[in-house]
Sequence to fold (545 residues):
Amino acid sequence: MNAILTLTNVTKSFQHKTAVNNVSFSIGKGEVVAILGPNGAGKTTTISMILGLLKPTAGEISLFNLEPHEKQVREKIGTMLQEVSVMTGLKVREILQLIRSYYPSPLDLEELINLAGLTEQDLKTRAEKLSGGQKRRLSFALALAGNPELIIFDEPTVGMDITSRNRFWQTVRALTEQGKTIIFSTHYLQEADDAADRILLFKDGSIVADGTPQQIKARISKQSVSFIVDPELSLEKLYLHSEIDDIYRKNNRVYVQSTDTDRVLELIFQEKIGARDIQIERGKLEEAFEQLTGNAQEAI
Amino acid sequence: MKVFHMQCKTEIIRVLRNRYFVFWSLVMPILFYYIFTNVVNTNAPDKAQWKAHYLMSMTVFSVMGSSMMTLGIRMVQERSQGWSTFIRITPLSDSVYFAAQMVGQNVIHACSITIIFIAGALINDVSLTATEWILSGVWILLGSLPFLAIGTLVGMMKKVETAAGVSNVLYMVLAISGGLWMPLEIMPKMMQAIGKWLPSYNFGNGAWEIVRGNMPDWKNILILIAYLVLFMLLSMYIRRKQEAV
Fold:
């Protein structure tokens, strides 16, 4: 694999806490990677270090085999930060032209406008008078201005409505088809699942899982068999079987968790516990995700 | 070079579109000039000299203000709105960015000086020799450096409101006690003694000497250089301290 970005044992500590703890991963050309995790998991800190805005306390980061702050690196990356910023006193078109002039081979202005979905009206507007949505579009255009090989988005869809969100991901897909490498952070599993072909799952500053969305989902979602049974009846018999991971009661139903639901069904009949209204549940992904990353979320 | 040129051009456009700049640096000084040379009778013994003197005062007042406020407040704005962070990710180098701001600011000052000089010539028929016009213009341009350094100090503040408030007060205090609004000679002795050591007085005095047919005093030049060095050292010290946190 041709690695564009490599992090080796990267740690970032602030005065009171360690935001990123011994993280290592490597991203190859053309990958679309989601950095997934709840708020406070270290996503933004990691991205800031990749961009050279923060210096790691320990460990190494290399982009295109160079250090993040070097000019040759900056010429090849584009970014959309969480905080949308604008340059006051300039019209959108002027800002785009200014930023394009910083790069050796910028994207064609017309193409840039089309990709970002900017209208003729937007282009004439002064930056300080833009609405939230317009600012987002400008910020997206600025990320693409230099025709970057690697694009990094920090929580790109926060504050977008459904239409702009769909449009955004559509454009991102078109960019990946051109061979761009994309890294984005999100705290929505759904978004990571839809858009990325690899997920780095962050929790408390560490990577707890790294794989395709399918792999991650299989890891974090649990299947179970649920049924109604006489509440007086003891379910101890079921506990004796090692195939069963967990048994719990919720809303008058009994839930039996296992990776092998067929075997659970067999056991229910074998033990003759008189189960009624049997259902197979394919555990809710979002719930499992919250469970997995839950502790960090409470800290906010 | 293309980047630098583009960046300078942008900085100039931005300043010219700033309404506060146009008001404080062009409208106000010209209005004051008109009032204190035509409406209010100042009992100046030599009317023609007073008109030239006060034209210099107001030009110095204008350039001093835009050095301290336009630059400083914009630096704070850019940082607080995250624009500075974005620029750090682009290939634009810090030094080009800073240099372009300085060049842009100086071009703006040259424009302000020209406009106010022309206004003086039109309103009061101020007539100086070509050398005097050019020399005083150059003096005002160069003399603004310590005030640009104050501007970068203002630019290190965290909030736009603080930066605007502090630079406004500083601006007015320096302008009045430096004799830019009314000559230092009519102020109490105590004020005069202090005023002579302020950068604003030394900035103004150079220009006043030029329109009287003299050359700026060595003392004026040395004091301004001393202030420039002081403010630059201070700004380097604060910057290092801010980075350490």
The interface with chain A takes residues 2-3, 6-7, 10, 13-15, 17-18, 74, 77-78, 81-83, 85-86, 88-93 of chain B (CB under 8 Å). The mean pLDDT of chain B is 90. The longest helix of chain B spans residues 47-80. The radius of gyration of chain B is 18 Å.
